[in-house]
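User: Here's a chain of 249 residues. Predict its fold as tokens.
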Amino acid sequence: MHKQLIELLKELHLPMFREYYAEFAQKAISNEFSYEDYLYELAQRECQVRRDNKIARLVKASKLPLEKTLQTFDLKRLPLKLRRQLDVLLDGTFVGRCENVLAFGRPGSGKTHLLCAICHELARQGKRVCFVSCDLMVQELLRAKQELKLDKWLKKLLQYDALMIDDFGYVKQNREEMEVLFTLLAHRYERGSVLITSNLPFSKWEQIFKDPMTTAAAIDRLVHHSVILELNVPSYRAEEAQKRKTADV
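Assistant: Prediction complete.
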């Protein structure tokens, strides 16, 4: 019976049932579990492992920096208003509404870490996330355009519930690069969430999109359904350097 049961559980793709059914059976006998309790314990273990494996796959596929999570972010650095905004974003419902999240701040303010932390939580909720630097995204879009596959590539990106573009405007783009970037934003408008970090305030986005009309159109699409996070906080890198300097004295 034992061998036959193992084979059946293999066929049903229930690895946790195979691994724990005997152990849980002994526990059930010792604690006088009902049949339902015994089955529930096994099913709960199976589902938990599947959820954990799914999250691990989603995080790996997202290419998010593994160390930039909510657990490693110092929330005390954020003003109360930002912490309240973060609490709302962490429930993930903004993704279902195709809302964007735009984080602005000076280098070292923690904007990339903060948005990555939000994206990690989205992955834990079972949502598909993609993390990419702005420069790399532009190069991929240009390559797709040159190969006459831009439309196909844009549709592929719609598979992601949330697309995080880091360092938006950090590297200056030429007109062709700007055009594919604008095409991406226009294509995702009201179709999927975009999360963006940038050192540049909107008033300087003409440096990215080269002309006032395109700049205004890009900003309009992004802010129409969006949450804006302004990280007007000191550089954590500078703070860490100061702490090390003080410790060495």
